[in-house]
Amino acid sequence: MSTVDALLDRGRDRDAAIAVPDGPTLIYAQLREMVHDASLRLVSCGVRPSDRVAMVFPNGPEAIVLFLATARVATACPLNSAYKEAEFRFFLEDTGARFLLVPPGAGEQRPPPYPPPQAGEGN
Known about the structure:
15% strand
């Protein structure tokens, strides 16, 4: 049993686990199920215990669920969505993240590859 599982198992099924002001409330039964499902999806995508997984999500229930799911199966590396491109590049390199999780559609305007190709490469 992981530390995340032990933490989630402390809450009673019907007790509030996450309460967002003016937003949704998740009870422990829902949170456990969502974390379990998300961790299975991460593993099915190839995430292994030795991996670092960077994530860039705004604060909210989705970020919490994905953080817990990632921490359950690997090492979670949350990044601030307000970072500038140079900061993202630094932290992605510094963490050695093998995976990057972003909200749907957020990766559509990707920056150029890092490191940038040298003259004569990739032509």
